[in-house]
Recover the amino acids of this structure.
């Protein structure tokens, strides 16, 4: 870990053993993250209560853990375990964010290669047949098509007959 760990003792002297234990355990937890700006550990003793509070700044987020037990070393271990859990969660979140942006970049490349979706392609040309509406319905029922373009024999205009989702038919005709 590049960042120095600041250890503060309140009502307790921070011995080399405590300092080594904190540095070793927290150093291992901080290896999960690569951009740690600061790590601060506060050790407090009040009567039989041994408190450890850890604050780590990494990737613009604050990881915070506070533990209190009857033994200083177990308080340190439990607090560091909480920091490890938070670090794993933060690392996963960063990884998910990174992977979420990659498919978008691929999709943009595909859009550049593929023609724009608003472009119209001519698939086929044909001369619409003159039919009345009943004949158009029969022709549409008998085939796999979803719509039929025809000349309405009654008024001479081009009409479109289409199958609706509920099984009925819709008719599109221009104003006369």
């Amino acid at each position: 870990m590049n960042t120095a760990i600041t250890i503060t003792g309140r009502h307790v002297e921070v011995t080399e053993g405590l300092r080594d234990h904190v540095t070793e355990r927290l150093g291992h937890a901080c290896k999960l993250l690569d951009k740690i700006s600061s790590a601060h550990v506060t050790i407090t003793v009040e009567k039989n209560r041994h408190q450890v509070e850890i604050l780590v700044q990494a990737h613009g987020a604050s990881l915070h853990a506070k533990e209190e037990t009857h033994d200083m070393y177990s308080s340190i271990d439990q607090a560091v375990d909480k920091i490890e859990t938070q670090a794993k969660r933060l690392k996963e979140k960063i990884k998910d964010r990174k992977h979420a942006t990659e498919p978008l970049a691929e999709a943009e490349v595909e859009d550049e290669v593929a023609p724009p979706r608003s472009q119209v392609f001519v698939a086929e040309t044909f001369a619409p047949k003159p039919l009345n509406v009943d004949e158009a319905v029969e022709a549409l029922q008998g085939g796999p098509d979803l719509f039929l373009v025809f000349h309405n024999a009654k008024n001479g205009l081009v009409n479109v007959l289409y199958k609706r989702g509920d099984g009925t038919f819709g008719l599109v005709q221009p104003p006369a």
Observations:
- The helical segments are 16-30, 72-113, 133-142.
- The chain has two domains: 5-113, 130-172.
